[in-house]
Write a structure and sequence with these properties.
With 416 residues, the protein is mainly beta. Helices cover 11% and strands 38% of the residues. The strands form seven sheets. A four-stranded antiparallel β-sheet has the order 3-2-1-28, with no helix packed on it. Strand 13 and strand 14 form a beta hairpin. Helix 1 runs antiparallel to helix 3.
Length: 416
């Protein structure tokens, strides 16, 4: 399934009017291109999206100044809109632990949200200019635990914040990074390169930065950032940077020049390993599938394109059915968990539902849970439809038939 977030195209770009306010967040079938549902809530363009570690949760931010939390299964909001910003939400970043999300806004602030409880956490980080980008360190960086070092892009600078005290972040460095506005920032996801940061700017360049360990430690208020490379090739300002989620962790970059380029790190002297062409207008966002076999781009030309993750070659071009011609995709997410192991709460459901069914908890719950886990994994890996009734064979011998059916049906319907 593909989630597309966007809004009306500029009035001089298309003859048809843009989408209605209720059609700025839509899900589509990636094979047929048919619309599955409109997610109604935002009033105006949806500018950014973020996936939670929980596969049923998506967070979005819009021009209506709200951050909203959605159930993938229901297409409805899980909590009331998160209010506080006074400007458009430009970017969202999920913390490595998955417990809160950061939102960057044109009002010059970054706010932190407990999206499960629907509450703001700590004090907003104030900037003196619009904040276009924000990211967390995903792995330990020197003496900074994951999620405690924050990089933000504001104006032409990247600013670093120590957030080990969750009530109040402290600025520890400010670097003039680009000749134009900084539009995207991301840390390398691999622990081996945890001290490496990538930034994209409206000056057409991607810059690679490394923290200098001899500076004495990030957490001591000493941060020596060294520019190690400038990646050139794009003919217009950068709009998005995204790493593939699995090794070899390829960096994708999307630009106003309508192309997507792929880069390896450590860097190759040959430059980009591929340049994907097909869009006619700005590439606003790029996202990867979970296995990195493909990536998807959303563009101002009102299309989605699916590309081969290894070669960068076009796999499929989509003008999704039901998507207005005047729709500009600002963000896209690939939501697909078929053939994946169900998360922990699926097992918790399996083991905890006995009481609700009026059955006693089975003996040796841990061992039977392991068998159930493996069996469900095998079943979901071999089907994308609700399975036929399952007989209580040896794997489920100690579990009630009704429970088996409910667990399997819930897992298949939710995670495929």
């Amino acid at each position: 399934m593909i989630l597309v977030a966007g809004g009306p195209a500029p009035s001089n770009q298309h003859q048809k009017p843009g989408p209605s306010p209720d059609c700025t967040l839509c899900t589509f079938d990636e094979v047929s291109g048919c619309k599955i549902a409109n997610w109604k809530g935002h009033k105006g363009a949806v500018m950014t999206t973020c996936l939670s570690l929980d596969p049923d949760t998506v967070i979005t931010g819009g021009a209506d100044k709200f951050v909203r939390v959605w159930s993938v299964a229901e297409g409805k909001q899980k909590v009331a809109a998160l209010k506080g910003h006074k400007g458009t939400i430009n970017n969202l970043a999920m913390s490595p632990c998955g417990t809160f999300v950061a939102s960057a806004s044109s009002d010059g602030t970054i706010r932190f949200w407990d999206f499960v409880k629907g509450l703001q956490v700590g004090t907003p980080i104030e900037h003196d200019d619009e904040v276009r980008a924000v990211c967390f360190n995903m792995t330990r960086c020197f003496n900074m635990p994951p999620g405690k070092l924050i990089a933000s892009g504001s104006g032409s600078c990247i600013i670093f914040w120590d957030r080990r005290n969750e009530k109040q972040a402290v600025q520890i460095a400010r670097v003039q990074a680009h000749a134009g506005a900084v539009s995207c920032v991301t840390f390398h996801p691999l622990a081996l390169h945890s001290s490496v940061l990538f930034t994209g700017g409206m000056d057409r360049n991607i810059k690679v930065w490394r923290f200098n360990q001899s500076a004495g430690g990030v957490g001591e208020g000493k941060l020596d950032l060294v520019e190690v490379a400038t990646l050139k090739g794009h003919a217009a300002g950068l709009k998005t940077l995204a790493f593939s989620p699995v090794a070899p962790y390829v960096l994708s970059s999307g630009s106003s020049d309508a192309t997507i380029r792929l880069w390896n790190y450590p860097l190759s002297s040959a430059g980009a390993i591929s340049c994907s062409k097909g869009h006619r207008l700005t590439t606003h966002h790029v996202t990867w599938s979970k296995d990195a076999s493909l990536f998807i781009s959303a563009s101002a030309d009102c299309t989605l394109r699916i590309w081969n993750g290894a070669t960068g070659c076009l796999h499929k071009s989509m003008l999704p059915d039901g998507l207005d011609l005047g729709f500009v995709g600002y963000s896209v997410q690939h939501i697909r968990v078929a053939n994946k192991l169900p998360p922990l709460h699926a097992l918790a459901f399996a083991m905890g539902t006995h009481a609700r069914l009026g059955s006693a908890a089975p003996a040796s719950a841990a061992s039977r849970g392991t068998v159930l886990w493996r069996t469900l994994r095998s079943m979901i890996a071999n089907t994308t439809r609700a399975p036929a009734p399952v007989s209580t064979g040896c794997a489920f011998a100690s579990l009630p038939e009704e429970l088996v059916q409910r667990v399997v049906q819930a897992c298949v319907s939710t995670y495929t």
